[in-house]
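Recap quiz, item 2
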Amino acid sequence: MLEIKHTLCPSCSVGCGINVILENNAVVGTFPYKRHPVNAGKNCANGRNSIGNFVNKINEASISQANVDLDKAFAEVSKEINANDKVTVFLSGNNSLADAEAIKSFSEEKNLDLVFYADDLRNFEDVASYDDVEDASCVLVIGDVLYENPLIGRRIVHAKQNGAKIFSNIKAEKSVTANISDETTSGSVQEFLDTYKDNLDDSSVVVFNTVDCEDDLDKIEELGFKILPVYSKTNTKGILSIADSNSKEEIIEALNDTKVLLIFNDDVVDDFDFDFKSISKVISFSAFKNNTTEISDIVIPIKSWLEYEGSVVNAMGETQTFVPVMESDVLSVEEVIEKIKG
Ligand code: SF4
């Protein structure tokens, strides 16, 4: 029997609604949810492709790539945590608020090093809404937002249709955002802001999903106009209010000193210029096979985004909740943490 269930897209921080089509508890497609306030039925390719992961679903624990009983895997993880003094926990923006709280408490209780990467951005208390972007007289865009976060990009296109000026700073040679911009620069963010700040007024918005360095964030804030940082992971903004973030350099420094690495719900190996195989034990808690689980010594299955209940905070600061749309016997992150506490 076909069923259509409403949930949130797990593929970036915009917070679009998405409908998934289920047949006999298996995901077979997506379907527009026209009334969703963020995206009004539109989903980008990344959002629609998010269900593609389900062919790589992990249902069994493994040690050295061989399936093992779940309790044996939990015992092995507990043993590794207790036997080593250099244990690092990788917190991800893919985790819900409750999961992030549980991971943080567990790390504190066990005195483990917690790292969290937030795209080298930070938390800003006051951010623009998506409607502000659409209503802006001028939008400064840093990063290829139209390509990477298309449902914010759609609001920038609407702003342009409403008569707004669009200026962008993009490092890549080709970009979708440049195609709709009045002018595009490829120099530093600081130079870009200096060049175009005089075009801004009270209704203008600076939208960005990347910067060159931390000083750029200070400068963007100091301008005093509306800002909208857009993160690559669904709940990065929410977790920024729970945990401190680290730069890539800080994380690599921590990894250099790590004997046991616990990764909760992320595929980090391609994001960092680091040889993860140099770590004695890499332990992944993941719903899906990915490049990180491929190199992991221990893999523990966790519920996928369609199998549990939680809440996240989207880029414009709205808390959004989601509920399970598929039946599942797999444990949640919170349940897994209870098991490995030992
Ligand atoms: S813009 Fe982001 S949240 Fe929206 S559909 Fe695309 S990936 Fe999903």
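Residues 9, 11-12, 14, 16, 39, 43-44, 46-47, 149-151 surround iron/sulfur cluster (CB under 6 Å).
The first strand starts at residue 2 and ends at 8.
End of item.
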